[in-house]
Write a structure and sequence with these properties.
- The chain is of the alpha/beta class.
- The chain has 3 domains: about 220 residues, Vaccinia Virus protein VP39 (Rossmann fold); about 140 residues, Beta Barrel (OB fold (Dihydrolipoamide Acetyltransferase, E2P)); about 50 residues, no CATH class.
- The strands form 7 sheets. Strands 1-24-25-23-22-19-20-21 form an 8-stranded mixed sheet, sandwiched between helices. The protein has a 7-stranded mixed sheet with strand order 12-11-2-13-14-15-16. Strands 3-4 form a two-stranded antiparallel ribbon.
- Strand 20, helix 7 and strand 21 form a beta-alpha-beta unit.
- The chain starts with 18 loop residues before the first helix and ends with a strand.
Length: about 475
């Protein structure tokens, strides 16, 4: 499938090459980043599915970028090349006019009134021009504040997301609602956040809008629930946001239908995910990623940990066999643990696992999920990693830091703990390479690196590195 917005949308980067070539390119780029450690790089795991894999999307309301119609005596279809206004006139938006550039020169006044997107604009020389396209919901285009690309052909999202976006767009168009203009602070519609469980089919819908929204939200809910979807909408929420920042805020949330969370299953475990919780955006890819972490934690075959193609009972049996047939390692420390997914996945390999995360909401979710999964050897602590490191020496430390990597103070303290192995999950491999010399100086060696393509059709790839102390 090829998307008409490819090259202008801020989503995909590799739609014009085969997936095999994409993987080869990603491997070459990663080897360049790793530099002197490139020789340690092992497998680059392909994504289980290369299309429709995203379980979360934050869509923006905006301008389609093309005016529907213009009239100046004759009807003009506005849809082609750039319309430039010369001699001091100010262009508010880029305008596309029937394949050819039209210029309005100094002194020429335009008496014709042009009908664009349901509004009438009078264009005069030197005047401010605002030929806006129709309301659109989608992904922001590159280098644009207001134009968004509609996702009807997007290869990153599932069909249910496309159906929901199409319905929501039509619903608000029909009622004359407009998007929030970030400079003028006018309009009501801001964002639509969709989340779903890949393995459960549960879907959350969150509408973000200002208090000026007039459309009836009861009809909004009715329309969504009537859609023919493969999954099931379990929660619909409305976030009222009158701020100026272009962000979805976890404030003034009202549940319009159902609940404010959904359930997902990863590696045979069930996780409760709220609208604002961090969770890997590729559920099937997350199983591959966590399989590599488990392999590095306890020499387990990484594909044995995925539940996507295996029954929950089979995965549970693998956990039990591993826990009873091998001597358990003593203590693992999972830093930047989020909602505790990695800690719970590897818990059968250790007598005890402790997770640390600065976001208190995530820690509350981690504790709740561990209890629901009947995992009794995991404990979770809310606070800064640097301030909450234990004096007890863990046998294994798992790091899954933010994209910018480890803070220098935390890095020094982690390296000084003396764990026999450190597993570094790098969503930005450049940050890992920057942090690596501190571990080398503390006596660690890079024993293995594997990568996982968590985001097909984009430039991003995650790396997992196993560091072992030379004296162990």
């Amino acid at each position: 499938m090829f998307c008409k917005h490819f090259g202008r949308c801020g989503g995909c980067a590799y739609l014009d090459i085969s997936y095999e070539d994409e993987l080869a390119l990603k491997r070459a780029n990663l080897m360049e980043i790793l530099g002197e450690y490139a020789g340690v790089l092992g497998e680059l795991h392909a994504a289980p599915v290369a299309e429709g894999y995203r379980n979360k999307m934050e869509f923006a309301f905006g301008d389609s970028g093309t005016a529907r119609q213009a009239r100046s005596g004759n009807r003009e279809h506005v849809s082609g090349a750039t319309h430039s206004l010369e001699a001091g006139s100010r262009v508010e938006n880029r305008e596309h006019v029937s394949g050819a550039t039209r210029s309005l020169e100094a002194g020429n006044s335009v008496e014709n009134r042009e009908h664009v997107s349901g509004a009438t604009h009078s264009l005069e020389a030197g005047s401010r021009v605002d030929l806006r396209g129709e309301l659109t919901l989608g992904i922001r285009k590159k280098r644009s504040f207001y134009e968004v690309a509609s996702p009807e052909n997007c290869v990153l999202i599932c069909e249910d997301f496309k159906r929901i976006v199409a319905h929501v767009t039509d619903f608000f168009r029909d009622r004359g609602e407009t998007f929030f203009h970030r400079k003028r602070h006018t309009g009501a519609l801001r964002h639509l956040v969709l989340r779903r469980g890949e393995f459960t089919g549960e879907i959350l819908v969150l509408l973000s809008a200002t208090s000026t929204l007039q459309a009836p939200l009861d009809r909004f809910v009715e329309g969504l629930l009537a859609l023919p979807l493969d999954g099931k909408i379990v929660g619909i929420m409305h976030a009222e946001n009158d701020g100026v920042a272009d962000a979805v805020k976890n404030e003034n949330i009202k549940i319009l239908h159902g609940r404010d969370y959904y359930y997902e299953k990863i590696c045979g475990l069930t996780f409760k995910v709220s609208a604002f919780s961090f969770f890997q955006t590729n559920s099937r890819g997350a199983e591959v990623l966590y399989g590599v972490v488990a392999k590095f934690s306890g020499d387990v075959a990484s594909d044995a940990w995925a539940s996507g193609s295996r029954s929950e009972q089979h995965v549970s049996r693998l956990f039990h066999e591993r826990a009873t047939s091998h001597q358990l390692q003593h203590f693992a420390l999972d830093l930047y643990c989020g909602t505790g997914t990695i800690a719970q996945v590897i818990s059968p390999l250790f007598e005890r696992v402790a997770g640390v995360e600065i976001i208190e909401e995530a820690i509350l979710a981690a504790r709740e999920n561990a209890a629901a999964n009947d995992i009794k050897n995991c404990e979770f602590f809310a606070g800064d990693v640097f301030e909450n490191l234990t004096n007890e020496t863990p046998c294994t430390i798992i790091l899954d830091p933010p994209r910018d990597g480890l803070h220098p103070k935390a890095l020094a303290k982690i390296a000084a703990l003396g764990a026999s192995r450190v597993i570094y999950v790098a969503c930005k491999p450049k940050s890992f390479v920057r942090d690596l010399p501190a571990f080398i100086a503390a006596g660690y060696e890079v024993q293995a690196i594997e990568a996982v393509d968590m985001f097909p059709r984009t430039p991003h790839v995650e790396a997992v590195a196993l560091l072992r102390r030379a004296d162990t």
